[in-house]
Design a protein that fits this description.
263 residues, single chain, binds nicotinamide-adenine-dinucleotide, alpha/beta, Rossmann fold
Length: 263
Amino acid sequence: MDLGLTGKVALVAGASQGMGRAIAEGFAREGAKVSMCARGSEALETAAEEIRKSTGGEVLATPADMSSYDDIRNYVDRSVEAFGRVDVIVNNAGGPPFGTFDALSEDDWMAAYNLSLMGTVRLTREAVPHMKKVGAGRIINITSYGVKEPIAGLILSNTFRTGVVGWARTLSRELGPDNILVNTVLPGRIDTDRHHSLNVARAKRMNLPLEQVQQQSREEIPVKRFGQSEEVANLVVFLGSDRASYITGTAILIDGGLVRTLM
Ligand code: NAD
């Protein structure tokens, strides 16, 4: 299937590792020009160089903290300077820290708000005028299955990601007439550094060996394994493509069947 991405420009945030990196590579493989960001420059540049080598694509790397509006503006400006247009954005970054309500401070709440909700709002705000110039666009938000079934101990993530879903569905109605489509992806348990560190913390809390915690976690998933970043990337690249031209306002689980809700 030709995804129609050749020559398109995709901005992928939080892309030095994990799902963001796989998504950046997925777009580059389909012929899109990719502008990726993450906070630090070293790991980001290494990832960008690896993607250039593996795909032969044009890849720009810009250090940017998704909780800083100045960084986000600079990231979009640099992308447009380099590639001249914006067709796709992927709103992604690290997740907010683990913590129960009692343990979290005002600063923790504001930091999570700035990163998980406002990072998404701000990158979108800066990108939409460029999409309107092109006459089309794709906005894809990476959140979590926690918006369907709140995950214990991740109250910050459960709160602000639910906000992203409400925002995205509203925005899809506002931007539909501009042919700018807005969708949210809800990953389940995907085998990345973030997922591993959450399991390590869980094993410590429960005073159990890591392997036992991981085995139990896998057993809860109908397909009996964690997902791979590339599997999430395949979905996101499709949503970013010309082939996903009638999909907007959705929140799509990719979780190996983990979540039991009907809708
Ligand atoms: P990860 O920690 O492996 O990678 C996160 C990426 O975002 C890295 O490149 C990191 O450098 C970058 N990043 C972190 N903070 C940033 C910031 N402030 N500004 C810009 N870049 C930043 O994470 P992942 O597992 O690939 O997860 C991606 C997102 O999906 C996270 O928000 C995570 O919480 C969420 N999620 C993950 C899983 C899972 O099982 N892995 C499940 C549900 C949701």
